[in-house]
User: Which sequence fits this backbone?
């Protein structure tokens, strides 16, 4: 019986356990975590699941064909490389790795071993993200002129690098998924990482080859959480508010300010992500968050970091 391995049983790792337990069956999961309490809690919730504290034991098992890595980002490269060398298809939670060079090395190894290497860029698998992509492809917005990404999260990050990899990567992943173009120009500025300074915000401007301007504004000092994206074209606009409990996506035609159509979300993004990973393994197809997508995200994230370093 072919099985899946999940390395890392923190809060997000347990979400993967919940989804894959439902998708592949109760006896086809093997989990790994150094923390005995986490392993015990997982087995209490799912008695049929096997658990180990040694990831090498998991990777040595021939019945495990795929591995999901949900550990701290600084461990991703080591674990993903070991997984690929062991012949396992590998899904890596974001942030995938800590540099473009590490990402390139993993995908090169994946090609050599003919294995699936997939990034867990969750927002790409949001049902609304797919709807936006379809509407853009159908020309519903006309010529795309402007995209505004706005994230505000009252959470503390110790550096702009951690802020970038944990927050802006979500928006970069969506931008690649929707447009797939390399930015012609990038400008970035950030404030607030000096000692005892409260403001923490990053602003990024991109000019895409087709003339579309992209603005990303991310801050971790707002008192309230914001997760909103606005796309403006010459024939219509879309507003994607991920915190809206009802109609997360609204379409405005022309210059109107009353939505013509609303599109509610309907499926948990993580379930779509997990289903896609299984499909890529079964059908031997490249994932939509595979090499081209992930390297685009990593490459442009590093460009933003370089601009911030010079700011």
Assistant:
């Amino acid at each position: 019986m072919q099985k899946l391995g999940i390395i890392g049983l923190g809060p997000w790792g347990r979400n993967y356990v919940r989804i894959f337990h439902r998708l592949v069956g109760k006896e086809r999961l093997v989990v790994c975590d150094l923390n005995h309490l986490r392993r015990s809690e997982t087995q209490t919730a799912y008695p049929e699941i096997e658990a180990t504290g040694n990831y090498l034991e998991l990777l040595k098992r021939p019945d495990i064909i795929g591995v999901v890595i949900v550990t701290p980002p600084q461990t991703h490269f080591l674990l993903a490389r070991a997984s690929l060398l062991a012949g396992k298809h590998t899904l890596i939670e974001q942030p995938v790795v800590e540099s473009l060079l590490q990402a390139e090395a993993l995908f090169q190894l994946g090609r050599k071993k003919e294995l699936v290497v997939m990034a867990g860029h969750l927002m790409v698998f949001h049902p609304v993200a797919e709807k936006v992509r379809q509407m853009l492809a159908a020309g519903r917005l006309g010529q795309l002129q402007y995209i505004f990404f706005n994230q505000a999260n009252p959470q503390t990050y110790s550096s702009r690098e951690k802020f970038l990899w944990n927050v802006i990567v979500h928006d970069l992943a969506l931008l690649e998924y929707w447009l797939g173009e390399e930015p012609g120009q990038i400008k970035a500025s950030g404030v607030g990482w000096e000692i005892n300074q409260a403001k923490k915000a990053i602003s990024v401007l991109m000019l895409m080859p087709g003339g579309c301007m992209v603005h990303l504004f991310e801050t971790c000092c707002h008192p309230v959480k914001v997760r909103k994206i606005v796309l403006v074209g010459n024939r219509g606009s879309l507003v994607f508010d991920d915190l809206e409990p009802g109609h997360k996506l609204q379409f405005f035609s022309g210059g109107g300010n009353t939505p013509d159509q609303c599109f509610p979300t309907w499926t948990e993004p993580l379930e779509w992500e997990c289903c896609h990973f299984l499909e890529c393994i079964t059908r031997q197809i490249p994932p939509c968050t595979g090499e081209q997508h992930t390297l685009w995200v990593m490459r442009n994230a590093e460009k933003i970091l370089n601009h911030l370093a010079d700011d």
